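Continuing the batch. This is chain 6 of the set; chains 1 through 5 are on the previous pages. Same settings as before, nothing changed between runs. Recording input and output for traceability.
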Amino acid sequence: MKAGKIFGLSLGIFFCLHLAAQAVGARQPEPNLDLFPPDLKAEDVKNKRDVYEREAIDLGDKVAPNDSDLWLWVQAQLKRGVPLPKKYEGVHIDVKDGLITLKGTVQSAGDRAELVKAIKSIGKDVKVNDDLKLQAAGGGTNVGGGANSNANANSNANADDPRRGDTLLDSMLTVGYYALLTLAAVGLVGLLLYGALTLRKKSLARMENYFGAVRDRQKRLAAQHESSIAELSRKVDGLAEQQRREFDAINHRLGSVGREVETLRRGAEAGAYASAQADGRQAGAAPPRIEPDFPVSAEEYLNRVRRSAMTVKDDRLNNIIVKDSDGSGALALVPDGGVPGGLLYVIPTISRFTTKQDFNNYYERYYDCYSPTAGEVWIIEPATVRKVQGGWELKDKGVLEAR
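Output for chain 6:
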């Protein structure tokens, strides 16, 4: 809306400026001073015929296209006066076939007579056709040269000289012309500034939209990246958990195989003992003692061996196990007399883990546990110890499981 108003204002200013230019241009144009020096010769005019013919057209005069008429027109211009006198501004000079015709208006009969006389002074054979008209005080024209008309014209010229009105009009037109020109310049500058500001605003808006889209895209990519990382982490954790479970399963199978082998061994020993008893070769020998098979829950195993078990505790200072006199230790020492030479097991007295920290605090030195969590404690393989001075030391670590 604002741009349209400014554009319409600029068009109106230019239209007024055009009208003012036409008003000023309607005045009699001034001859080019460089073309009419006092010492001008016919040969000079002939050499620049095109220039002088163009000058005649610009001044609104009609000249026949030959050298003699053109030279006669130049002389008439010099006689009229260059620069052009104010009183002869409305006069035009036409030349054809040696005849000089004066057209237009003059202010008084005296001005007309003076001009005709000046033109005739070019030469005695010069012919002049006087078509000049007198400009009356009211703005009209009078034709003829009577005594009364001349007297009235001279009286009007003396009482109210029209040239003063022309001078005032010229001044007003000049001031108006430059005022309109200034307004037009201001309008153009305003239009350019408005266009520049509008373009800047639109450019900033486009840049903001572009960078906003870039920021949104970066956020989306970051979110996708975080989601991908989280998904990859979940997959890695899942694979690690799967491998741990497989590893635990393998250990359990290996433990089961070991226990089966131990059971077979003890069965073989028992069979051999029975055979020897039957043959009388080992009379009085004690039969081998068969302990419960592992794995077994810590609570169940402790109930079976409670009579032969002894409560012990960890002596971290000497890195051994010692007897716990008050019976509150987290470990129990159980002898296995069924094995030749005897074995000493150290088993947990806590039947259930409440947190992972229970395993770390009491059993990490003597047992491995692949997933120490809250749950019932199972003995997969018992830890074994041997007698040393002051107590017992670890021989083989066992395996626990929280279920």
